[in-house]
Amino acid sequence: MNKHHALRFLLLKHLWMLRAHVAPERHRRIAQSLAIDKTVTTWIVSWVDGDERKTFEFPLDEVALYVRGDLRNAPATGSDARNEALGDRFARQALAIPDHLQRQARVSRFERLGFQLAGCAVVVAAMMAAASLPALASVGLAGAMSLPEFWFRKGKWLNAGLGLALAAVGLPASALLANLGLAVLNFSDPDRKWRSSRIAAHLSASAWSFAVLLRHPAPHSSPALVAAAGLVALVITYFRWLNGSHFRLYPLVFPLVCTGLVWDGEWMAGAIGLLGSVAGFVAPLLLAPNVTSKGTQAAAVKRLTPIGADPSAR
User: Fold this and answer.
1) What are the two backbone dihedrals, phi and then psi, of residue 74, each rounded to the nearest 5 degrees?
2) In this structure, how many other beta carbons lie within 10 angstroms of the beta carbon of residue 102?
3) What is the C-alpha to C-alpha distance for residues 99 and 106, in angstroms, rounded to an integer?
4) Is residue 252 part of a domain?
5) Are residues 86 and 119 in the same domain?
6) Looking at residue 241, what is its pLDDT?
7) Order of strands, edge to edge, in the sheet holding 35-38?
8) Strand partners, 36
């Protein structure tokens, strides 16, 4: 996951929670100009306030992002509280707000939740409308799995149950990709509650789907069409991985599930799902560009630049 984006989300959240104490234009200018860099030992946060460029530096180990708590290099107990304290300290320094002024209510994990839910529902309905009758249940489940994780922790467990149901009703290629992808992401998920059960459920569903796929191969689909869908899915997944805080796991897997639908012969439903995934990625960039897209280009350049080349020379 992209730690620059996770840190940016944390800092912007605390700027937002203190915005009532400053002029809207000043808050907007600071948020828009926020830049994050990293040296060998420190994070460096910079922003523009008026005509002055200011910085805020802190050690790398002062914030713990995307680290599982049950592994060897687990962060110390209370890392979430330390992260929040750091975010609050930054926001008060950036906005020049004294400690006695209170923050606003906690920011929701999901901006414009109703809009996001409506968009997901439209994509699911369109996919089901394009599916063949025998595949209707499978396509509906594959699309509907994008909804439960808005219920955060309970939604991840619900998706484990839906993954088992998806494996049971058919379309083995899409069920295999969905459950295998979610098993991998759940293993990396810092949220420890019910994680082993979620992984076990997804791996069981993956094993069943793989066995069904061996016994009953998917209908003949154009290899070129499947390859094209897979390429589009990988591109979408990659840029989603660069651009987001990933409270939801399924959006990273959904494009690959759509490739599985194409492989299973439901190419129209798969294509609609891929278009919906692209729309779900692009819409936040258009509606909230200052929050979601800042840093994505730099992250992409850093990862795509050939070894030995200097990205700063571009």
Assistant:
1) -65, 145
2) 10
3) 17
4) yes
5) no
6) 77
7) 35-38, 42-49, 52-59
8) 45
> What is the maximum span of the chain, computed from C-alpha positions, in angstroms?
68
The answer to whether residues 121 and 99 belong to one domain is: no
Residue 28 domain flag: yes
Which residue has tokens 């729309």? 279
From the number of C-beta atoms within 10 Å of its C-beta (0-12, 13-18, 19+), residue 309 rates as: exposed
pTM of the model: 0.62
Do both 155 and 265 map to the same domain?
Answer: yes
Amino acid occupying residue 180: L
**83 & 126 share domain:** no
Q: Which two tokens stand for residue 235?
A: 């591109």
Phi, psi of 46 (to 5 degrees): -130, 155
Are 124 and 246 contained in the same domain? yes
Spatial separation of the C-alpha atoms in residues 78 and 152, rounded to whole Å: 21
Report how far residue 155's alpha carbon sits from residue 134's, in angstroms, rounded to the nearest whole number: 27
Residues 101 and 23 in one domain: yes
- Average pLDDT score over the chain: 79
Q: How far apart are CA 132 and CA 299, in angstroms?
A: 41
- The tens digit of pLDDT for each residue in 135-191 reads 888 888 888 888 877 776 677 888 889 899 999 987 889 999 999 988 988 887 766
Residues 6 or more apart whose CB falls under 8 angstroms from that of 38 comprise 4, 44, 60
Select from 91, 107, 123 the last residue of a domain. Answer: 107
Render pLDDT for 200-233 as a digit per residue (tens, 0 to 9). Answer: 999 999 999 999 988 887 776 788 888 999 999 9
Number of domains in the chain: 2
Same domain, 93 and 130: no
Q: How far apart are CA 280 and CA 123, in angstroms?
A: 10
Residue 236 lies in a domain: yes
Domain carrying residue 96: 3-107
Residue 309 lies in a domain: no
Q: Please report which helix (H) or strand (E) contains residue 10, including its range.
A: helix 3-17
